[in-house]
Automatic annotation (TrEMBL):
It is a multi-pass membrane protein. The chain crosses the membrane at residues 5-26, 32-56, 63-80, 92-116. Coiled coil: none annotated. Keywords: Cell inner membrane, Cell membrane, Ion channel, Ion transport, Membrane, Metal-binding, Sodium, Transmembrane, Transmembrane helix, Transport. This is Fluoride-specific ion channel FluC. GO terms for biological process: cellular detoxification of fluoride. The gene is fluC. InterPro entries: FluC. It is found in: Cell membrane. GO terms for molecular function: fluoride channel activity; metal ion binding. It comes from Dysgonomonas hofstadii.
Amino acid sequence: MLKQILLVGAGGAVGSIFRFLTSVFVTRSEPWPFPVATFFVNIIGCFCIGLFANLIPSNNLRFLMITGFCGGFTTFSTFASENLSLINNNQLFIAVIYIVASVIIGLGAVWLGMYITK
């Protein structure tokens, strides 16, 4: 159990650092009316989970890469917070687009990752 905890922690730390760096890189340009950084990391994370689901046979590597890295890289709480902020700022249309696009494209990204690694 301790080994799995350490693997999840190590993967989560690296995933969180990658999420931070991705957000910094994506938001370097002009500000977007759409939370593009969170959208981007969540879609990439969905794709990675799809890839890893078929590529990684070992439970220990799954703890490291899927639970740890992808769990640290993606962020549902930020997604929810950004949507609430959009709604509170009377940007309901953007919030709906963000929610629908995230769910549909996220599912598609997981499917694509799994399809590629079949």
